[in-house]
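INFO worker-7 received task bundle
INFO bundle size: 2
INFO processing item 0
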Amino acid sequence: MRDSGRLPGKALAPSTIEEICQAYVEHRKCCCDDEAFYAEQPTLADAIANAAMAVRGDGSRCSHHWRKPKALLAESRRRLLEIEPAIAAARDFDALIDVVGAALREIKGLGPLYVYDTALRIGYRLGRLPERVFLHAGTRAGAAALGLDVKRDTIARNELPPPLSEFSAAAIEDILCIYKDRFATLAR
């Protein structure tokens, strides 16, 4: 589960954007950054099945989705495997997340974070990664604390201050969510 920026064994939480970025590099791995695991899946169907079940590289379930009933994730897996050709045809991450989101739209309990995480994992297998930072509840709070316009679905990396803007869009999504409370403290 994502925390509010507290670091194990550290008395003081990071107090600047630079310190937050350094703390992320030193102490965190993106919860859903199992890029090698997904990129190396033998087939796209394997990647889709594992992504839908929120499987991490170590075999555990991603902490974002550990409370979701297995049956709910299995229904997602079924629906996504049915549309494997459409997933394979997605030309970029924006198209991929749209295809995944459309397939899962009617499943109650699978919101924007699940759709994003699932599309990201599948995107690792397809080599289609986000160019923009997708906003959901946690990232939206972090971006708002930085004074960004959050009345949209995505923000460009170059809208963020350095060194945050130098990370990949997926890592920025993770940093904004993990450290949303720290960013809010900085804003004060």
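INFO item 0 finished
INFO processing item 1
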Amino acid sequence: MFLFCAVSSAQSNSSPAIPQADGYIVIPDAKINPDKNRAYRAIYDATKAAKETSQLIPVINMAGSELNALKVCGIPLTSAKFIVVFHGAAMNAILDDAHYKEKFGISNPNLKVLSELKKAGVKLFVCGQNLLAENIDPKIISPDVAVASDALIVLMTYQNDGYALMSF
């Protein structure tokens, strides 16, 4: 497997799938590397805001970073079965640009990456219960994000189906 990843890493861009996310660098002699014969199933629990409103929130960066890792190693993105569910402070990241600007005074840096994640096959959900509790109209969130009944139901459903839990 190392040879597969090392050969494929000759690409000059360490962020070939999601350019705004952290890149991936092959680690020589690593004992575990991405494997082209494996499906990667992860459910990302998105609750944290970015340190600065001009930055990507952690979950978007990390999901994008893992897609970059797979792509650098020549693994098709169809091998990535990623789900992201937003609730809590992470919900600000999915506001449409007008409402993000109204709240923070700048354009939403997360919207383009949300679109890229969706195009890469990532399923994006927001907690409907949290939207109601925070009085957020679903019409003001990114069209790339679907409303789910409850974040915890989404998390349990996918974990019960064998998805690894990633919390950011």
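INFO item 1 finished
INFO post-check item 1: The longest strand covers residues 40-46.
INFO post-check item 1: The chain has one domain: 2-167.
INFO worker-7 idle
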